[in-house]
Structure formats: C-alpha cells, structure tokens
Amino acid sequence: MKRKTMLLAMLCMTAAGQAHAEEYRIEMLNKAPDGRVMAFEPAVVRAQPGDTVTFVAKNKGHNSALMKDGGPEGAENWKGKINEEISVTLSKSGVYMYQCTPHVGMGMIGAIVVGDPTNLEAVRGLKFPGKSKAAAEKIFAEIESGG
Fold first, then answer.
1. Are 44 and 113 within 8 A, CB to CB?
2. Choosing a second label site near 79 at 20 to 30 A (CA), which of 52, 99, 112, 131?
3. Host H or E run for residue 13
4. How many CB atoms lie within 10 A of CB 99?
5. Average pLDDT for the chain
6. What is the CATH number of the domain that holds 48?
C-alpha cells in the first residue's frame, strides 16, 4: 500500500510540473476591427516555446508564411497555401516575423514573440516592402513596450 501511495504521489508531481501548451488563433482579414486593411488580427502574439498558433483565413486570398530570415536561428519555416488554415508549433524563443505573401506590400505582416525576443535586432534588419515598413515599426514598438 505504501508503495502505491508513493507511486501515485510521484505521478501527481510529474503531471503538475508539466507545462500546458497554449493555442493561439490569428485571423487573416481584408479589414481588421481597428480599420487596418489586409491585416492579421492580432498583429502581435506573445507565446511560449511549445505553443501552437493557427492562422485562419476569414477572408479569401490570404496565407501566412514566415518571412525570409524572419525567425530565430534554426527555427522551422512555414508557408501556408492561399485560403487555407495553417497551424505552427513554435519551439525556439525569439521573434517570428510572418507575412501574407500576396499582400506584404500592403502591410499585411505580423509577429509572434516566443519567450524572450532574443533576435529582435536581427528581424528589425529585414527588408519590409511598401506599407509593411510602417506596419513593422508599429509591431516593433508594441514588442518593445511589452504589449
């Protein structure tokens, strides 16, 4: 009996120590509630390693793709198909800058901050075409403010 109690106690401690991965949802929209056009909503998500983010095409014509050199070193790349939902599980800490491939020039970009934004300066150095440059500045300001 003592052995069963000890085993049960060990199992409970192990289960209590395991982290629960979170799931986030980012909508791909023609127009966000705040008036932004061609937008990811929310534009910035804060997550932890092991969390999953699902991109949902609420309007047609959008996808989500990690920007070239847009993630922490060694992070897995992703590129969703147009009009299709895609889920990514992020295992490395850092900033992941992503885009809607057909609308990046219109400012349709976003960021996922996983743990600490260790590569923030590196992603600041990416080339942001058209209106995505102004969108990136807003995203970086939000990341730096902790929001």
1. yes
2. 131
3. helix 2-17
4. 26
5. 90
6. 2.60.40.420
Q: How far apart are CA 67 and CA 132, in angstroms?
A: 12
Q: How far apart are CA 123 and CA 42, in angstroms?
A: 19
Residue with tokens 């959008």: 62
Residue tagged 């992603």 (tokens): 123
Helix, strand, or coil (residue 93)? coil
Cis bond upstream, residue 72 (ω within 30): no
- Asked if 47 contacts 114 with a C-beta cutoff of 8 angstroms, the reply is yes
Band (19; pLDDT cuts 50, 70, 90): low
**Angstrom distance (rounded) from CA 14 to CA 108:** 42
End-to-end CA distance of the chain: 51
Structural domain contains residue 11: no
What is the rounded distance in angstroms from the CA atom of residue 55 to the CA atom of residue 98? 11
Angle (CA) 64-66-72 rounded to 5° is 145
Answer yes or no: are the C-beta atoms of 39 and 31 closer than 8 Å.
yes
Parent domain of 96: 22-145
How many folded domains does the chain comprise?
1
CB 31 within 8 A of CB 37: yes
